[in-house]
Amino acid sequence: MNNWYVITGGPSSGKTTTVNMLSGLGYSTTIEHARHYIDLQHATTGQTVAEIRAKQMDFQRGVLQMQLEQEAELDPQETVFLDRALPDSLAYYRFLDLEPDSRLLQALPHVPYRKTFILDLLPLAADYARTEDTQAQQRIHELLTEVYSSLPVPVEAVPVLAPEQRTQYILDRLE
């Protein structure tokens, strides 16, 4: 086990806002790789978000590769808050009805996170990278909860609160 804490939840649950607040308090954090992948693909190929997301298997594999690389480089002794983590990929593979990558399936039984915080959903807010509707938002949230609950990692639901209160809620429950 290490000192890594996962911040996750369905689309538009306030993950990135929470992670950014933790970063502002001096904690080490990571970025969300799905959004980063979209940004990189757009910058290097000129593809639109729709074109990038249309190739779902390529998209999921690209995000997974970034996540694997990032987690391999993290210091296990450092307290780090991850904006999504490897198990999120399995939830998305299931949501999209795709066969999960073997690298993901091999890694999941060994995830070393100290704890996972699953943020309750906020009203769905549209942005350039988010393509889900409310029904998809709910289903992804359910799948994330199923996946993380099946792993040997403590899971804590985080209620809807003001961003500062949500961040403090998490800090008060670190192990």
UniProtKB/TrEMBL annotation:
It comes from the Bacteria. Keywords: ATP-binding, Nucleotide-binding. Residues 5-161 form the NadR/Ttd14 AAA domain. It holds the Pfam family AAA_28. Transmembrane segments: none annotated. One of its GO terms (molecular function) is ATP binding. The keyword Nucleotide-binding applies. SUPFAM superfamilies: P-loop containing nucleoside triphosphate hydrolases. The keyword ATP-binding applies. InterPro entries: NadR/Ttd14_AAA_dom, P-loop_NTPase. This is ATP-binding protein. The lineage of its organism: Bacteria, Bacillati, Actinomycetota, Actinomycetes, Micrococcales.
